[in-house]
Write a structure and sequence with these properties.
Layout (H helix, E strand, L loop, with lengths): L2 E8 L3 H11 L8 E8 L6 H6 L8 E5 L5 H11 L4 E5 L3 E3 L3 H11 L2 E11 L26 E2 L11 E4 H7 L19 H11 L3 E13 L7 H18 L7 H20 L3 H18 L1
Parallel strand pairs: 1-2, 1-4, 2-3, 6-9
Antiparallel strand pairs: 4-8, 5-9, 6-8, 7-9
Helix pairs in contact: 7-9, 8-9
């Protein structure tokens, strides 16, 4: 019987955390040993009271307070206290399909994966904005590679809302990089501590798989349904590339051409009154500009 530790890190999101905990206590855990670990990353709302309200849940819950802000730090705290062979990471704004965990367990059983990522479906709190294109909603963490279990494509990796990693990976390759990721209520330029860790595993030849029937729903916050939020994310993504791409100075002209092309397309689509395409091209121009500037 496989054992799983589900780790949720939370910061000042008590209302949505209640819905997340309610949802996760409804998943199918038959024939599995499961514990739930909630790491409060220095919240000043009623997070602790929300978690205590679930102590009689069918899934044993452990609560920890991590004073030092940082999602990577909080995740490492969860890893430190987890007792299971498999560690599952998710967020405090997620709802779960009943078979979410069973599907991950099946994928681990039939593959030699060191890490697994599942399907992430977006759930909007209101009508989807007319300017929001399918080409950029991946910024909300959307992942859908179909319903079958397959190796993750090389240009993709599991994301925080639905990610499972063997405990052995942390014993062998270290912890999440605490210089990356969210810090309290602010977003650092260098996000993606989970992506960096997965890339670390892959670089050592470890197998990363996609579990097509492990499904979660990411509830999008209303404040993120703004153009300014997307532009900021694309700008920061460009800064990440600038910091991480080696020998970038030899390729600056390629990024410059892509920047000018995206900028030109944004004007053309604006004239043609193609709202979604206009905003998509504008976001890409911001991305390339922050690589080359």
């Amino acid at each position: 019987m496989n054992s799983y530790s589900i780790i949720i890190c939370t910061y000042n999101n008590a209302e949505m955390l209640h819905s997340t905990l309610s949802s996760i206590t409804q998943i199918d855990t038959k024939d599995l040993n499961v514990e739930l670990i909630v790491v409060n990353n220095n919240s000043n709302d009623n997070t602790e009271n929300i978690v205590k309200g679930f102590t009689s849940s069918s899934i044993p819950i452990q609560y920890f307070f991590e004073k030092k802000p940082g999602l990577a730090i909080a995740r490492n705290t969860g890893v430190r206290y987890a007792k299971s062979k498999y560690l599952i990471f998710t967020d405090d704004d997620i709802l779960f399909d009943k078979n979410f965990l069973k599907a991950i367990d099946e994928t681990f059983k039939k593959t030699d994966a060191m890490a697994i990522g599942g399907k992430i479906i977006l759930k909007y709190p209101c009508k989807r904005p007319g300017w929001l294109s399918d080409s950029i909603d991946y910024m909300y963490g959307k992942i859908d590679l179909g319903d079958k279990d397959i190796p993750f494509p090389q240009n993709m990796s599991p994301l925080g809302p639905n990610m499972a990693i063997k405990r052995a990976a942390f014993d062998q390759y270290g912890k999440f990089d605490e210089n990356l990721g969210l810090k309290g209520g602010t977003e650092t330029i260098l996000r993606g501590e989970e992506t960096e860790f997965i890339n670390r595993l892959a670089s050592q030849g470890e197998k990363i798989f996609y579990s097509g029937k492990s499904i979660v729903y990411h509830v999008i916050k209303k404040e993120r349904l703004k153009k300014e939020w997307f532009i900021s994310r694309f700008e920061n993504s460009g800064k990440v590339v600038k910091h991480s791409v080696k020998k970038l100075r030899f390729r600056w002209w390629k990024f410059s051409l892509k920047y000018m092309s995206a900028l030109l397309l944004s004007y053309i689509f604006y004239i043609l009154k193609k709202e979604r395409l206009t905003f998509y091209a504008k976001c890409k121009s911001k991305y390339f500009f922050n690589i080359i500037k």
